[in-house]
# Entry
Amino acid sequence: MEIINEITTKLELTYPSAWSYKLIGHEKEAMKKAIHDVIVEREHKLVHSNVSKTGKYISMNLDLLVHNEDDRNFIYEALKAHQNIKMVL
# Structure
């Protein structure tokens, strides 16, 4: 495989920063529970994004304020590991 555009620079963010995660799963309520399990009572905005052609998958956008890189990465990994979330982008 040929790498066309190799990016070696690290993303530089100023914290706290607004961040958005795209979540993919099977059921809206189960995904909401997963989000609650991970971020508890933290202020956030959750918006339904799309449904697959077959209706098997749904996507949602989760917007919230992250306080530092560790916080951003923790939320990503915790959502990714949750049984009700199939994928996090």
